[in-house]
Amino acid sequence: MHLPDGLLSAPVCLGGYGLTGLATWYCLRQIQRDPDVSRNMPKASLLTAAFFVASSIHIPIPPTSVHLVLNGLLGTVLGYYAFPAILIGLLFQAVILGHGGMTVLGVNAVMMGVPALVAYQAFQLRRFWRWGSDRSRLGIFAFLAGALGLGLAALIFFVLVMTNIPAAMDAQAERTAIYGLTLAHIPLMLIEGGFTAMLVLFLHQVKPDLLGHHGTP
Amino acid sequence: MKLDIDEYAHLQSPIHAWQPRYKLIGLGALMFAVAMVETLWLVPVVMGLTALLYGLSRLPWIYWLQRLRYPSFFLLGVILVLPLMSGETVLWQWGPLTLRQEGCWAVVLIVGRFLSIITLSLLLFGTAPFLQTVKAMRSLGLPTTLTDMLLLSYRYLYEIADQLLRMKQAMRLRGFGYAPTRRIPLIPQRRDLQVFASLAGTLLIRSYEQSERVYQAMRLRGYGHACSPLAARDRPRLDSWSAIATGLSLTLAIALVATEYWIGMKA
After folding, report:
1. What is the rounded distance in angstroms from the CA atom of residue B35 to the CA atom of residue A17?
2. Which of A37, A73, A104, B228 is 20 to 30 A from B101 (CA-CA)?
3. B91 at interface of A, judged by CB pairs closer than 8 A
């Protein structure tokens, strides 16, 4: 789910770069508050590469298969490092695989990165939730973060695609298509949420350090 | 996964001789100028221009075709959907299928811009070692944290991709995916999801543990102790060819934007 080069007009692309600049500045400022940036930076970098590779895993859904977006998971594990990590991952995808593109890098980073930050905040809400065991809280909020990450990204994607097609479309048809396509993503949100919850529970069991403190790795 | 983007960076051509820092400015401006094109007759002009630049770079056409394999699904989607969905002027009708003129022109515009921009991207990243391009980005003001993350991620990308390949092979050798199970259409099996979650989790844990070793090695080599003078050192003196190439590409970009604006004003 990447917007490709050539679909959006230059002002939208430049707007995307502007918003990405702002979000990157904010995240880097939060990262600088981390008392051990030089220690966490290599961790975030290697995890960025691992996420890039892990997103190529295809989940079999008969008769086909889907590959996961993992932006909610990135937010959950990396916290504020998630936005730079997504920016880097998208650059690799544009340059290496031809997914996305250079002019739309900013727009794609906002589309994937802002939902990742929302997912991170959603995952943090578990601290205020009193009911259930630690494990069930972790699973529920990881599910929420994974599903929210994909759902928000899909919503932004369809709004951008529908409103930027050069030839005019009927406004009502456009609205219906956006609602329809976003609702069609609900099964994928459930899969992404379920996968995120399973993975977070696995990490909690095997390597709890990886889930970090205050969202930093 | 074919990861090497700079496999032809060693070739000799005018585009290869263009210093990465200035190439980034020149080709970046051209990319955005192409993204601004809204007029149909400018599409063959920009496509011709990018084809000429690609020819000048001496990059093999197979490299271009290989990089187009993944995005071609997008192109197919645009070609199949837009002419049938978008616009009001009916060109041809057969039962429920209606071919619309505005949709067809939209396809030409989107595909033309897409092919031109992707070709320019390949010229930017395919004609210099990736490390040089990242250094050029840093010298243009990209924050140090981002460039460090970019270089480290790129350095370990190949290794982690290899690890995943080995783990998938081990899973297959242990029989994963071969057991005859009844699969319900469009619903993933819980066990499959669990196995893939463990696979991705193991990959993350291995990378995390590797990052500890990488950090220790970096500390031993002085990382985090002093500001690196790299950015200043990487700002090379502008040579005459790079100045000409950057000037030409900026002029072309401005000319494209001005033509588009002038046509828009006339319309």
Report:
1. 14
2. A104
3. no
Dihedrals phi, psi of B94, to nearest 5 degrees: -145, 105
Which tokens belong to A49? 């590469």
Strands A58-61 and B90-94: unpaired
Q: Is the dihedral angle over the CA atoms A175, A181, A184, A187 positive or is it negative?
A: negative
Residue among A70, A64, A47 nearest A1 (CA): A70
Report DSSP letters for B86-111, one per residue: S-S-EEEEETTEEEEHHHHHHHHHHH
What would the pLDDT profile of A87-138 be if each residue is shown by its tens digit? 999 998 888 888 888 999 999 999 999 999 999 999 999 888 878 788 899 9
Token pair 């990396």 is found at A78
Task: Give the tokens for residue B107.
Answer: 């396809």
Find out whether A80 and A32 touch, Cβ atoms under 8 Å.
no
For testing the chain A interface, which of B145, B162, B219 should be mutated: the one with the most A CBs within 10 Å? B145
Phi, psi (rounded to 5 degrees) for A216 = -95, 150
Contact A192, A146 (CB under 8 A): yes
Q: Where does residue B182 rank: exposed (0-12), middle (13-18), buried (19+ CB within 10 A)?
A: exposed
Asked if the Cβ–Cβ distance from A42 to B192 is below 8 Å, we say no
pTM: 0.89
Left if phi > 0, otherwise alpha if psi is -120 to 50, otherwise beta: which for B39? beta
Q: Which residues pair with B90 in a beta bridge?
A: B100
The reply to whether residue B205 touches residue A203, judged by beta carbons under 8 angstroms, is yes
Residues of B in contact with A31 (CB under 8 A): 145
CA proximity to B127, closest of B31, B57, B30: B57
> Do residues B43 and B113 touch, judged by C-beta distance below 8 A?
yes
The interface predicted TM-score of the complex, written ipTM, equals 0.87
Q: How far, CA to CA in Å, does A137 sit from each of A73, A148, A150?
A: 16, 16, 20
A48 HSE (CA, 13 A, CB side)? 33
- What tokens appear for B6 in the block? 């700079």
**pLDDT, tens digit, for every residue of B137-195?**
998 989 988 998 998 898 888 889 999 999 989 988 988 777 666 667 667 778 888 88
